[in-house]
Design brief:
Shape: globular
Radius of gyration: 21 Å
Number of strands: 21
Distance between the termini: 53 Å
Number of helices: 10
Largest sheet: 6 strands, mixed
Structural class: alpha+beta
Length: about 400
């Protein structure tokens, strides 16, 4: 694939390879370049639906990391964007460039492929388009560590990296690695740009390296996700459980309890003593005491969600967020008697009633950019702060 550029202004072309990527568990060679994945190939072969296949290929938390004196950086990429039939086209995804950990510049890539989803029928139409370039100029003329965070909700095939000075892979930061799994909120739904997703905000405040396994619509206690986490080196692990189980109406209490135990057992096979935090759902009024499934409502030209289950069926084991929170707290309390590094956090401590009154959920499920910031700040304070389960302890 040929992309026009000025070879004089950016004479150094570097193939994008795994050694300059962080936050991905696997990479795939495509006809266009390198496609980062957040699940390994063996796990992808077990994915049961297109939702998770799309979500794990969207590079939330994935970034290029290199050291260079370059003042101009260009990244050629082929995005695959997501649109919903009947709704306005989304804005182009944002590429965040950080210098020394500080957000310094942003860019977008126009064009690309568009996957058009019909939420009523779940049919998908792929409209192909051209690759483009994210360009960053006027960077500091000194040796520096650069990161380019990829758009968190756009599948991104990386074609080439061009600069006006050579690059080399960034040195190991020496920071602890935080492995996190959650739903679309962890993935970054409604966040304004990739470093504004709440786990990225919390990781920056906590001084850790993030691996974000937040999968939109797909935090379902899948065994292959647990095995991928088991096999991924990490110093800190968190799992956010509840909202997709409830809004997908995928199991009853009888199945939920052993599924949680099995998920935690599998993680513990590879990380027997790593700090492991179980986090329940943030406040979501439409699902607190009403079972799923959720259904979209398109009135007014925007999508909002409503729960369609019958609260009377709670007695028969149908799940709501309050039921899930109570059961998660009980499971962690029981297991912590033999596992002192296992912890529980009620998601309403990250975003609760007061937060909802101040920063309501625009679609009744997902926070807006200010909500992501609130959740990230609260997580950093409660989890990475003094006395928290991920706090740095004296040697």
């Amino acid at each position: 694939m040929s992309i026009e550029h000025d070879p004089i202004s950016t004479p150094f072309t570097t193939p994008v390879t795994a050694d300059i990527l962080r936050g991905a568990l696997d990479v795939e060679r495509t006809a266009h370049g390198l496609l980062p994945h957040r699940l390994p190939a063996w796990a992808r072969r077990q994915i049961p639906d297109g939702q998770l296949a799309m979500a794990e290929a969207q590079p939330s938390g994935v970034r290029l990391a290199f050291r260079t004196r370059a003042t101009t950086v260009e990244l050629d990429a082929l995005p695959t964007k997501r649109a919903y039939r009947g709704l306005p086209a989304p804005a182009d995804g944002v590429y965040d460039l950080l210098v020394g950990g500080r957000l310094t510049a942003q860019a977008t890539v126009s064009g690309g492929n568009v996957r058009v989803i019909d939420m009523a029928t779940q049919s998908v139409e792929l409209r192909e388009g051209p690759a483009g370039t994210a360009r960053f100029a006027d960077l500091p003329a000194r040796d520096k560590d650069v990161e380019i965070w990829l758009p968190h909700t756009e599948i991104t095939e990386l074609i080439a990296l061009r600069t006006d000075a050579p690059i080399e892979p960034a040195p190991d930061s020496g920071r602890r690695v935080w492995l996190h799994h959650g739903s679309s909120i962890s993935h970054g739904s409604n966040a304004a740009h990739p470093t504004a997703v709440w786990p990225a905000l919390a990781a920056a405040r906590g001084g850790v390296e993030l691996i974000n396994l937040g999968f939109g619509g797909s935090a379902m206690l899948d065994p292959f996700t647990a095995r991928a986490m088991r096999d991924t080196p990490a110093d800190l692990i968190s799992v956010k459980i509840g909202i997709n189980i409830v809004n997908g109406d995928v199991m009853r209490l009888r199945a939920f309890t052993p599924a949680v135990h099995g998920f935690l057992d599998t993680i513990r096979e590879g990380h027997p003593a790593t700090p492991l935090l179980v986090v329940s759902s943030i406040l979501c009024p439409v699902q607190e005491d009403t079972p799923g499934p959720l259904a979209p409502d398109f009135k007014g030209g925007t999508v909002r969600f409503k729960a369609t289950g019958d609260p009377a069926e709670r007695a028969a084991g149908r799940l709501t967020l309050n039921i899930v929170r109570d059961e998660l707290a009980r499971i962690v309390r029981q297991r912590a008697a033999d596992d002192p590094n296992l912890h529980y956090l009620d998601g309403r401590d990250l975003y609760g009633e007061a937060d909802y009154a101040e920063l309501p959920l625009p679609d009744e499920v997902h926070p807006d950019p200010a909500g992501h910031r609130r959740i990230g700040e609260n997580f950093a304070r409660l989890v990475f702060g003094a006395g928290g389960p991920f706090a740095v302890t004296a040697a």
